[in-house]
Every structure is written in C-alpha cells, then in structure tokens.
Design goal:
Blueprint: H1 2-13, H2 29-59, H3 64-100, H4 104-139, H5 144-159, H6 161-164, H7 167-176, H8 181-203, H9 213-237, H10 246-250, H11 254-286, H12 290-326, H13 330-363, H14 370-383, H15 387-402, H16 407-431, H17 435-460
Length: 468
C-alpha cells in the first residue's frame, strides 16, 4: 500500500524521471560505489584537461603578461568557487538523507532552497568582487599591463558568474540523489564549448576577430553561463534523478536555509584553512629558488592525476553514507564506506607504485631543463608515499561529510596545517637543508597524520548518531 501511494504521488507531482534510491543491499554495494565514482572521476579529469588546454592556448599568445593575468585571475575565481564547494557540502547530506528515506518532497524542498541560496550568494559575490578586481591585482604586486589584462579577463568571467558560481552547489544536489552522470555530462559540454570558443575568440580564425586574452575571458564566461543554465534546466525540468518544482525555489524556508548554512560554515572554514596553509606552504617552496619552484609545479601536475580516483570515490562515499543513514541502514553506511576505502587504497597504492618506479620518466613530457626534471622526478617518487594516506583521507572525509559532520574534516585540516604542513615542511626543507625533497617528505607526513586522525574519528562512530 505505501508503494502504491508513492506511485500516485509521483504521478500527481509530474515527475519526469524515476525517483530511485541507491541499491543499498550488501551484495550490490560494490556496483553502487563504482556507478557513483566513475562519472565523478571523469568529471574531475575533464576539469583538469580544460585548465591545461586554456593555459596552452593562452601560452600560444607569447605574452607573459597574459599568462600572469590568467594565473592570478584564476586564483581569485578559485577562492570564490571554494565558498560554493562549501555550500555543496552543506547541501549533500540533507538531500542524501531525505532521498535515502524516500522523503522525496523534502529532498525537492532542499534542492529548491539550494537553488535560491546559491543564486543569492553568487549575486553578492559578484557585487563584492567586481569593484575589487583591479585592487586585487595591484595587491598581488602585478605590473601595470598584468593589472589591465587581468581586470578585463576577470570582469568578463564575473558577468556570468551569478549563474556560473552556483554550478558546484547545484551539481551537489544531483550527486546527493545518486546522479553523478549528469554533472559529468554538463561539465563535458561546458569544457568542449570553452575550448572551441577560446580558440576562436583568442586567435580569430576566418571572419572571427582575434580578441586575445579578452576572448579567453569571453569563452570562459559563456561556458560558465551555459553550465549554469544546464544545471537549472536539469533540476527544474526533471532530467535528473531529482526534480525541483519551481514553487520550492520561491518558497523560502528559513529554518532549512539556516541548517544548510550551519553545515556549510565548517566546510567554508576548512577551505579557508587550506588556502592560507597553501599560501604559507608556497612561500617556503619559493624560498628554495626558481629551479625548485619550477620542479615543484611540474611534480604537482603529475601527482594531481592520482587525486582523481580519490576524489571520485570520496563523492561516492558521501552519497552512499548519506542515503544509507537516511534509510536507517547504519550498518550499510559503515560497510559501504569501508568497501569504498578498500577500493581507493587498491587503486591509489597501484598509482603510488607507478610514481615510485617511473617518476623521472613521467615528468619528461614537460620538457624542462634536466635539473628541473631531476628534482621533479624525485618529488614524484616521494609522492608515492602519500597515496595510501590520501585514499584514507578523501574517502573517510567524504563519508563523514555525507553523514552531516562537516566539522571533523575542518579540525583535521586545521591540525594538519598548524602542526605538520607548515612547521614540518619548514623543518625538513629549510632547517635540515633537504630542499624540495624535504618539502615532499613533510607533505607526506602531513597527509599521513591527517589520515590517522580521520580514521580515528571514523572508528569512534559519532557520525552515525548525527541528526539533521
């Protein structure tokens, strides 16, 4: 009888796609994990590839000022995006719990409030960032031409950021309902459009005018606008697992919004801690000289490949745990997180072995000087030590956030930055004189400490009793 009532309710609300919770049976867990993780991995790879493509296209201009402007401008966009990453982490447990409990009306209500809140925050972010763009470049010590180019570039991107910034939060709504494929396709469409438009507007083939860096800004702005429209169209049109009725967007629910903000604030704090820690960390690396800095950047590009499976499995863990808790299946939530962790450890340990054996060969594609490549290869080999720790951290942090505990990852990040990332890296690299090797050894120790803290917290099991 309850099943028939649910079917009738679906028909009355006009759902265009089936509402379906994840397969949370013990025998179906592995399939569920892979089904959730693979699209998220592909999505992360697409984001990485389009960033590299944009950098390559702008590099073809042969203008160092343009590259510097994009580098500094991208940093500000990255900071703005981090707030919406935090917002998505406050949305995911609410949607996932409701979806797992088959309370689809509540999931739709959360989705509607997520749309409203993310659009309002984006409007405020654009209004704040627009007049501060030029002062930002000046504060960063940019030369006059970099300030001019960077301001034009960022202003183009900000013109569509009211729709572009919320993409992260809206994708979070879909992922929490178990749909990781749609965000992947939206990202793919955005990226293909971005690369084609950037090439055309930067270099001006045929009748198209060559606009240089301004063209790159226009292309990125148009891609973000397209992505935002697609996200809204999918959610409001019922083309994802979750369909958000228009009425839920305009029916402001102050209590629900406060819960979202409460869950998002620790995640925002975590993002802030990470950014500050990264700035201090990079200051230590810069003190080692240009060769070490160049080698570090090359090694980071190679190492970032290993993040993709960890990030994808972290998304799978968050969605699975949230829906399992919503369905009242605490044992499945824990088993799912542990099984996801085993898979992550297997994949990332294998990548670690590749880094350890072929580190020098992997960096040669960047074509730098032998001195830079030797140092970068050493750093990549050391990064093999990080892989098991990163697997533990990414998956268990995802599981914890999916349960609604966004504070524990924040405190773990704070402990890592304060007690390991900054002081240990400085000790190894500067005090002991180990140079770039000390930087990467200190980083490996930092990840190991964070992973140990996260594993200890997960084993305590307080995440199982969280009530949202």
């Amino acid at each position: 009888m309850p099943h028939l009532k649910m079917q009738a309710k679906d028909a009355l609300t006009g759902a265009l796609s089936p509402r379906k919770a994840l397969d949370l049976s013990e025998e179906g867990l592995t399939h569920t994990i892979v089904d959730l993780a693979l699209p998220a991995v592909v999505e992360n790879l697409l984001v990485t590839m389009v960033f590299l493509a944009d950098t390559l296209l702008i590099g073809w201009l042969g203008d160092p000022a343009a590259l510097a402007a994009v580098s500094l401008g991208g940093l500000l966009i990255f900071v703005l995006n981090s707030f919406f990453t935090a917002l998505s982490l406050g949305i995911i447990p609410l949607v996932a719990r409701a979806w797992g409990a088959q309370d689809y009306r509540r999931a739709e209500r959360v989705g509607g409030q997520a749309i409203s809140l993310s659009l309002l925050v984006a409007l405020g972010a654009v209004a704040l960032a627009w007049p501060l763009t030029e002062p930002y470049f000046v504060l960063m010590g940019a030369e006059a031409e970099v300030v001019r180019l960077g301001t034009v570039y960022l202003h183009w991107i900000l013109t569509t950021s009211v729709l572009g910034l919320p993409i992260l939060a809206l994708n979070g709504v879909m992922r929490a309902a178990g749909d990781t494929r749609t965000p992947m396709w939206i990202t793919g469409i955005m990226n293909v459009w971005n690369v084609i438009a950037a090439y055309a507007l930067i270099f001006g083939p045929g009748p198209v005018p060559a606009l240089g860096l301004a063209g790159a800004g226009m292309a990125t702005a148009s891609a973000r606008f397209l992505g935002g429209l697609l996200c809204l169209g999918v959610l409001l049109g019922g083309r994802s697992a979750i369909r958000v009725p228009w009425r839920e967007v305009f029916a402001w629910d102050g209590r629900l919004v406060r819960t979202m903000v409460r869950l998002s604030l620790p995640a925002a704090g975590e993002q802030l801690i990470q950014r500050v820690g990264s700035l201090i960390f990079m200051r230590v690396v810069s003190a080692l000289g240009t060769v070490s800095l160049a080698a570090h950047q090359v090694a980071v590009q190679v190492e970032s490949i290993s993040f993709m499976p960890g990030l994808g499995l972290g998304v799978a863990s968050a969605t699975l745990v949230g829906q399992a808790l919503g369905a009242g299946k605490v044992d499945i939530a824990e088993k799912g997180a542990r099984r996801t962790l085993r898979l992550a450890l297997q994949i990332m340990t294998a990548l670690g072995l590749v880094f350890a054996l072929f580190g020098r060969a992997l960096v040669t594609v960047f074509g730098a000087t032998p001195e830079v490549l030797d140092l970068a290869g050493l750093a990549v080999r050391i990064s093999a030590l990080e892989q098991p720790s990163l697997a533990v951290l990414m998956v268990l942090a995802g599981a914890t956030r999916g349960a609604g505990d966004t504070r524990t990852p924040m405190w773990v990040s704070a402990a890592g930055v304060l007690f390991f990332r900054v002081p240990v890296v400085y000790l190894f690299a500067i005090t002991f004189g180990w140079g770039l090797a000390g930087v990467w050894l200190g980083t490996a120790l930092d990840w190991a400490a964070r992973a140990a803290l996260m594993a200890w917290s997960f084993r305590r099991g307080r995440w199982k009793a969280i009530r949202l």
